[in-house]
Every structure is written in structure tokens, then in C-alpha cells.
Design goal:
21-stranded antiparallel beta sheet; mainly beta
Length: about 575
């Protein structure tokens, strides 16, 4: 859990900048031309991680490149990160984990919060949060955000902007209802996003007509509602329903390459929770429904298709005593393009004493690839694209026979709390293995002038080992150190099994923080400094180019430092 106090250690302005003091999630720009940001978990792209907002589907589909930018940091109450295969209740897409974002609530202590930001690069932001009690049971909150990056910056003098200029405007209104007497509760949230950005060549104040530019416009509306009822005479029995609607439209011109996309999503989840006999045996079961309508145009090619996926799930929790918890779940979905989907998942937690916890997890996940949206940055290149097997179609899926991605994830971890010199600490070690049954491979090694996207023929896996330690080294001075070792490989068509591109072989992280009083963060000094070391990464092959246009096969490792005084 990343709490509000942990978020204060990072000067974050949106969700993508909220993981600076967390070693599990890695965030980076995919490229400086489009400004897309990507997370990595367990050595794999963020598209294999289920990102949710208030336990509802968040950034997915064509929103993957920019979805992390749409949640301002000042709105975030807390973030929960779960490694490995997630709960079957949340769907079948989670392969490497889940990131859930909890927003500020209408019950928040702040009745009015105005938060501004300005830096020497003229990046400006304004956040507003206000709440009101409509009645003892009805509460509402309104959140607003506007950010502006108005100028062209080219600090490395390569003729291209280091990041796109543009603006982002988003508004959110939420209503919460809670009636403890009747057992009824519910939520309604609506968010609107207008995103405007443009990267490419710097103009130096001249006409931009002949310059390489990348205007990308995004408009998004997201509405979701939740309602639940707890039976007053059977306190272990409850029912709930979740509904979601999303409309996302994106218009992009990358140089002279047109890419327009639209996504309409409908989501429904019906849940029932109870016990079998006594509270040692709990279960949650229900039905789900997902509808996705995608319309994409890449130059003159159209990629339009629909996903209609009804499903059912059952998750059983066995807690014989405080030391052991077993959670097993299965879900069965029927996909209109791919047929029946079956996903089992199992989680075990064993705590032999109050300071030691062992965990094991295993499960499978599946997802439909969107090869253009997920590789948007590569439109900003001279590469010719080949998607799937030209001329081959399957089940009305337009990407020339690309199959659904499927992977198994296995993980184990141990956590140990300790006390030295009256100060507490914690050590955590975990290992996760993700193995793909099928995967859509983006291959940039066949030729420096080409990009091939095709089905996996062979093996693809990712191994991640992480060790982390936390300790209060002096009074109110906390130290956090983490090391992560990653090994991700893919069977490429012409090259065989080799390292996955742009995946660091290791990461080292250290954070030191101090607060002048443990009572509250208000009215006291806080200091925080963080250092990240990112290991070497494989770069796509360029040996087929003339020697003057070849680059190194590996990037050098580098350090990134940031600090904060509050």
C-alpha cells in the first residue's frame, strides 16, 4: 500500500509520477516525440498489469499510452499494488499484477483544497478539491485539474522537443451514499478528460508547416456506479453490483502518418458474498459482462472489431486459523472472437508467527492485443509495419490472425519484521516467473527499417527477483533499500531466444526520509532523497545500417537522484 504519507515523499503531479519511492513499479517515457509513459511490473510492459480506479477498470485499450497522466497526484488518496495473478473477481486480464488507485473521498478532512505547481520549464498545474455533505447519508465531491506545458524545450540540441508541449483538463464529480441502518451503500463517479499535446521538431518561432510534428488529441468520458447491500440479520451476506461506461476518442498525426482511434466500453459486475457453515469458509461469486467496440484507422487501413464477453466467477477463501489463508478462484468467460476462456488462480498466505509471512501464488491471465495503440511511439520512425500474417484473418479480428495473449504467473515471497535497538524494520524477498503460452511480439530486430508484429512461436518468459529492506536507522529517519534482478527473454523469429528490448537487467533503489514529528505531517519539516540505478538494456539491432547509422547494442546504466524539502 502506498499511503498518503508515502506520496508526500515524491513531488508527484500525476499517477505516473507517484511511484518514485516504490521499487515494484517502474515508469518511463516510451519516447519523447509522443510523450507516452509506460509502467513495467515483473519485467513486462504495463499492458499486462490490470490498472483500476476504485476497483473499476481504468487505463486500458487505446488509453494505455497516456492513461497514467489522467489521474492527478493531488486527487490520489492511496495506491494498492498486488504482484502476480490477481483476483478472478476483477476479470481475466491481470497477468503480472494489479494497481488500484483510491481517490480522495467526500469524507476527506479537507473541505477545500487548492494546489498549484510551477517550475522553471514553465510547466504549470492547478488542482482543486471541494466536498459537501448534502445530507447525513449523501456526500459529494468535485475535483478539477488543469496542466499546461506551453513551450518547446530542446536541451540536448537535437532539433526535437524533449517532451511534447500541450495541455490537460479533467473534471471529476463523485457522489457517495452510506446508510448503516438499512445496509445500503453506493457510489457514482463521472470524469471528463481533454488532452492536447504536440511533439516533434522545434520551430524556433518560425512557420511549422514543413516541420515534423505529432499533434495528438484525446477526449475521454468515464462514468461508473457501484451499489451494495449488507443483509442486517446475516452479517456475512452481501450483494453488490458495479457498472462502467467509457468513451475514448484519439486523433493523432505522427508526421504524415494518420492514426485515429475510438473505443466504447461497457462493463458490468454482479457479486454475492457469503459463508459456508461458519466464517472459516467464505466465498464470493457472481456474473460479469464486458463490451468493447474498437475503431482504428492507420493511414488508409481500418481495424474495427467488437468484444462481447459474458462471464462467471467463484472465489473461495479458507481461514482455519490466524496463521493460514487460502484463496482459490476460477472464472469462465465466453469471448465472441476467441471462444471459451478458463482462468484458475490460487493464493496462499502462511504466518508461523506475528513477524513472518510466507506467500505463494499461481494463475493464468489473457488479453486481446491492440498492436497499433500499444506501439504508438514506433509510428514516429521510418519503419514499415507488418502486422500478423498479411491476408490471414481469424474470427473477425482484423489484425491478420494475431491470437489472444495468454500467460501463467507463479510467485513466492517472504516478509520478516524485526526490531534492533528498539527501532523496527522489515525485510522482504520475492521471486516471480511469468511464462507466455501465446504473445504478440513487436520485433524491431529483423530490419532497422521494419517493425514486425506476430504471434509467439517458441517461448517467452520473465523472471524477477526482488529484495527490499526498511529500517528506522535513527529516530524518525527511515531508510528503504531495494534491489531487483530481471531476466526477460523472447523467441524472436530470426534471432531465436534473446533478451527483451528496453528491459533493464537490474534496478537499485534507496530512499532516506526524515520527519520532524511522527504525530502529523502538517506544520513540521520533512526531508526525502531518493536514488535510482537503472541497469543496462538491450537496444534493437542496427547492424544492417551503414556504419555511420549504427548504435550500441546496449544502453549504459545510469543514476537518477531526486530530493525534496517540505
Amino acid at each position: 500500500n502506498i499511503s498518503k504519507e508515502e506520496l508526500f515523499k515524491a513531488a508527484c503531479c500525476n499517477l505516473s509520477e507517484s511511484f518514485e519511492t516504490n521499487a515494484t513499479v517502474d515508469v518511463s517515457f516510451t519516447d519523447a516525440v509522443t510523450g507516452a509513459k509506460e509502467i513495467q511490473m515483473l519485467g513486462l510492459s504495463g499492458k499486462y498489469t490490470f490498472i483500476s480506479q476504485e476497483q473499476m477498470p481504468g487505463a486500458r485499450g487505446i488509453a494505455i499510452p497516456y492513461g497514467l497522466l489522467y489521474t492527478p497526484g493531488a486527487w490520489v488518496e492511496s495506491i494498492q499494488i498486488s504482484k502476480g495473478a490477481g483476483s478472478v473477481v476483477q476479470g481475466y486480464e491481470s497477468m503480472t499484477g494489479q494497481i488500484n488507485v483510491e481517490l480522495k473521498k467526500p469524507m476527506d478532512e479537507d473541505k477545500l483544497l487548492v494546489n498549484g505547481y510551477f517550475n522553471e520549464a514553465y510547466r504549470s498545474e492547478l488542482n482543486v478539491f471541494t466536498r459537501k455533505d448534502v445530507s447525513p447519508m449523501f456526500k459529494t465531491a468535485l475535483m478539477g485539474h488543469y496542466s499546461l506545458y506551453p513551450t518547446e524545450h530542446d536541451r540536448n540540441n537535437d532539433g526535437f522537443m524533449d517532451m511534447p508541449k500541450g495541455s490537460l483538463l479533467t473534471l471529476l464529480n463523485r457522489w457517495d451514499y452510506h446508510n448503516s441502518k438499512s445496509g445500503l451503500e453506493g457510489q457514482f463517479i463521472a470524469q471528463w478528460v481533454q488532452d492536447r499535446k504536440e511533439g516533434g521538431q522545434v520551430s524556433h518561432g518560425t512557420d511549422t508547416h514543413d516541420l515534423y510534428r505529432t499533434p495528438i488529441d484525446g477526449d475521454r468520458i468515464q462514468v461508473y456506479a457501484k451499489a451494495g447491500y449488507i443483509f442486517p440479520k446475516k452479517r456475512y451476506n452481501s450483494i453488490g453490483t458495479q457498472w462502467g461506461y467509457t468513451r475514448h476518442v484519439q486523433d493523432a498525426t505522427i508526421g504524415h502518418t494518420l492514426y485515429d482511434a475510438a473505443q466504447t466500453s461497457l462493463y458490468g459486475n454482479w457479486l454475492f458474498q457469503s459463508i459456508i457453515g461458519d466464517s472459516r469458509h467464505k466465498y464470493i461469486t457472481g456474473l460479469s459482462f464486458r463490451y468493447e467496440d474498437y475503431k482504428e484507422q492507420l493511414i488508409s487501413d481500418h481495424y474495427d472489431f467488437r468484444e462481447i464477453v459474458p462471464g462467471a466467477f467463484f472465489e473461495y477463501t479458507y481461514i482455519p486459523h490466524d496463521k493460514l489463508t487460502v484463496v482459490g478462484g476460477v472464472r469462465l468467460d465466453h469471448h465472441n472472437l476467441y471462444g471459451w476462456l478458463f482462468n484458475p488462480r490460487l493464493h496462499l498466505r502462511y504466518a508461523p508467527d506475528e513477524t513472518t509471512v510466507f506467500r505463494l501464488s499461481a494463475g493464468s491471465g489473457m488479453r486481446t492485443p491492440l498492436p497499433v495503440a500499444e506501439n504508438l511511439g514506433w509510428l514516429a520512425s521510418s519503419r514499415d509495419w507488418t502486422i500478423g500474417q498479411p491476408g490471414q484473418t481469424a474470427n473477425n479480428y482484423p489484425y491478420n490472425g494475431l491470437e489472444m495473449e495468454k500467460a501463467w504467473n507463479f510467485g513466492a515471497s517472504v516478509t520478516k519484521e524485526f526490531t534492533i535497538d528498539y527501532r523496527s524494520g522489515l525485510v522482504s524477498i520475492d521471486f516471480f516467473h511469468t511464462r507466455f503460452v501465446n504473445r504478440a511480439i513487436a520485433d524491431l530486430d529483423i530490419n532497422p527499417q521494419q517493425l514486425w508484429i506476430y504471434n509467439l512461436d517458441g517461448q517467452s518468459f520473465a523472471n524477477t527477483f526482488q529484495a527490499e529492506a526498511q529500517y528506522e536507522i535513527f529516530k524518525r529517519v527511515d531508510l528503504k533499500v531495494a534491489y531487483k534482478l530481471q531476466d526477460a527473454k523472447i523467441d524472436y523469429r530470426n534471432e531465436g531466444l534473446r533478451e527483451q528490448i528496453f528491459t533493464p537487467d537490474s534496478r537499485f533503489f534507496v530512499n532516506v526520509s526524515y520527519v520532524s514529528s511522527v504525530a502529523t505531517y502538517k506544520g513540521h519539516w520533512r526531508f526525502s532523497i531518493t536514488a535510482h540505478n537503472t541497469g543496462t538494456q538491450r537496444i534493437p539491432d542496427t547492424y544492417a545500417n551503414p556504419e555511420a547509422f549504427q548504435i550500441a547494442s546496449q544502453s549504459p546504466e545510469y543514476w537518477l537522484f531526486n530530493g525534496q524539502i517540505t
